[in-house]
Design brief:
2 domains, 7 strands, 7 helices, single chain
């Protein structure tokens, strides 16, 4: 499932509105999360996001990093297309974290029992590291801390 391409601009600092007719097919199928592709001039970014609702308007967050990658400023108009999010967690799982979870059944069971939002938070925390080795090291720390009963995302990354 994909939406038609539509034009958007930033509202506030970090979000843009999504027309009702674009959201409706996704919401009818129960999709609260989507894959977003934004094109501005000769640049593009793709990321996973939530279709959020504020009063009667739908919007999607566009973080500063993606705004900078696109070169977007508040008055710029850009092209957006939404796609069905088929990922298991609503974000891309880093290979390293997936491998560590697969090798540690107890940690994987604990991770799967967490709320979807908590899982995404942990995945985002690992994804921000640039090198593969750092992602592996942090994944191992997180798995050990999950088994110790730690659930706070900031605490999960600390080595005890």
């Amino acid at each position: 499932m994909k939406s038609p391409i539509f034009e958007a601009t930033l509202h506030g600092m970090h979000s843009f509105s999504v027309p009702e007719e674009i959201c409706a097919p996704f919401e009818k199928k129960g999709h609260k999360r989507v894959r977003v592709r934004i094109v501005f001039e000769d640049r593009s970014v793709a990321y996973n996001a939530a279709l959020q609702k504020r009063q009667d308007q739908r919007f999607i967050m566009l973080n500063k990093k993606n705004q900078q990658a696109l070169g977007i400023f508040p008055n710029d108009y850009f092209q957006v297309q939404l796609f069905e999010d088929n990922s298991k967690y609503g974000v891309e799982m880093p290979e390293e974290f997936n491998a560590v979870l697969t090798s540690d059944g107890e940690a994987q069971q604990i991770f799967e029992a967490l709320t979807d939002g908590k899982k995404r938070g942990i995945i985002y925390a690992i994804s921000r590291y640039k090198t593969s080795q750092t992602r592996i090291d942090k994944s191992l720390i997180i798995c050990e801390n999950l088994k110790r009963g730690i659930r706070d995302t900031k605490e999960l990354l600390k080595q005890f």
